[in-house]
Design a protein that fits this description.
The structure holds two protein chains of two kinds.
Chain A (H helix, E strand, L loop, with lengths): L2 H24 L2 H17 L10 H19 L36 H10 L2 H12 L4 H8 L3 H25 L2
Chain B lengths: L6 H8 L5 H11 L3 H23 L6 H12 L18 H19 L9 H14 L14 H12 L2
Helix pairs in contact in B: 1-3
Classes of the chains: A mainly alpha, B mainly alpha.
């Protein structure tokens, strides 16, 4: 496989996942595109360093995570947001979420407060939750992506879930 | 079993990240403790809602983004030092050589400087003995002047005279 074929294969298999991860990190389309583009260009240039048999998904997520972290530092921690706000609880541009928060769970959570709470988390906590709960990666894989120990990932995830619970409870109480 | 599972343990249990013994404890405990089973259900529900939210916001990779990736990949990379023409590479060493030369120059310049005067401890004792022998235990005795390198050197030269 040559360099171009490698890139095309990577885009075909992981382009959507990478873009969605970037979108969840940055919470806006323009930055998600830039992040995805930069990540795949890095993949293209460093294609020989990828070892067959290792997880490409972990590699591209690691590149995205590092690029996002660098960009956050450059922008002093802020990205312009685009996700649902208080005025737009149904979703982006009034488009309803695929899962409407109509179902009531006994002792469970509703989607809308969870969505708001996830968006309100600090970038570091959101990153860990995305990788652990949405991407369903192991602590070891996350440690490899984020670049710290499994113990650190464990404690950060506990803290992030605790913060999420607090915010979800608060936003649930604010519901009319 | 009286001990409850902690929330952190439940989170790790859901993610399959507990050590085998802890995993077995939580697994057994959940079947007999309704309080912990309730907390477990809430954590599972939270994870399920997170996934639903993510699924609801999922989007396709835009074609324009794919085109931009291809275009950027084809564009020549910004030249680094090792992409410079081979003949120009030695030029990059000039600033480093200048720094090394400056450090060496400063180092050698200080090497030739005279060392600080050293005070011989023995002459200090001799001086003290001489002063106290001249006026032992007298309240009127003036406090001896503070020793300086010059006075000590004078003393040393006096001591050395046969």
């Amino acid at each position: 496989m040559d360099q171009h074929a490698f890139l095309e294969d990577a885009i075909e298999r992981y382009g959507k996942a990478a873009y969605n991860y970037a979108y969840r990190l940055t919470r806006n389309d323009a930055d998600a595109r830039d992040l995805t583009q930069d990540a795949f260009v890095r993949v293209y240039r460093a294609w020989r360093s990828f070892k067959p048999g290792t997880s490409f998904r972990s590699w591209i997520y690691r590149i995205l995570t590092n690029l996002h972290r660098d960009e956050l530092r450059r922008r002093k921690g802020r990205y312009p947001e685009e996700l649902p706000s208080d005025d737009d609880p149904g979703g982006r541009n009034g488009r309803p979420l695929a899962v409407e928060p109509i179902e009531e769970y006994v002792d469970g959570y509703l989607s809308e407060p969870v969505s708001r709470a996830l968006a309100a988390l600090p970038a570091e906590q959101r990153r860990i939750l995305l990788l652990a709960d949405i991407e369903d990666l192991s602590y070891q894989e996350i440690a490899g992506i984020v670049g710290c120990s499994i113990g650190t990932i464990r404690s950060r995830l506990h803290r992030a879930r605790g913060q999420l619970r607090t915010l979800v409870t608060r936003y649930s109480e604010q519901r009319p | 079993m009286n001990q409850h599972a902690s929330l952190d343990q439940l989170v790790d249990y859901i993610h399959g990240e507990l050590a085998p013994a802890d995993d077995a404890f939580v697994h057994a405990h959940l079947s007999e403790c309704s309080e912990c089973a309730r907390a477990y259900d809430r954590e599972v529900s939270l994870t399920a809602r997170l996934r639903e939210v993510a699924q609801a916001q999922e989007r396709e990779l835009p074609d324009s983004c794919v085109r931009a990736i291809r275009a950027a990949a084809q564009a020549p990379a910004r030249p680094s030092l090792w992409h410079m023409p081979q003949l120009l590479r030695p030029l990059a060493a000039i600033p480093a050589a200048l720094i090394v030369a400056a450090v060496l120059y400063v180092g050698l310049a200080h090497r030739g400087a005279a060392p600080a005067h050293a005070i011989d401890a023995l002459s200090y004792v001799h001086h003290h003995t001489a002063v106290t022998a001249a006026a032992p235990f007298s309240d009127d005795t003036p406090i001896p002047a503070v020793l300086t390198a010059e006075t000590t050197r004078e003393d040393q030269s006096t001591d050395a005279t046969p």
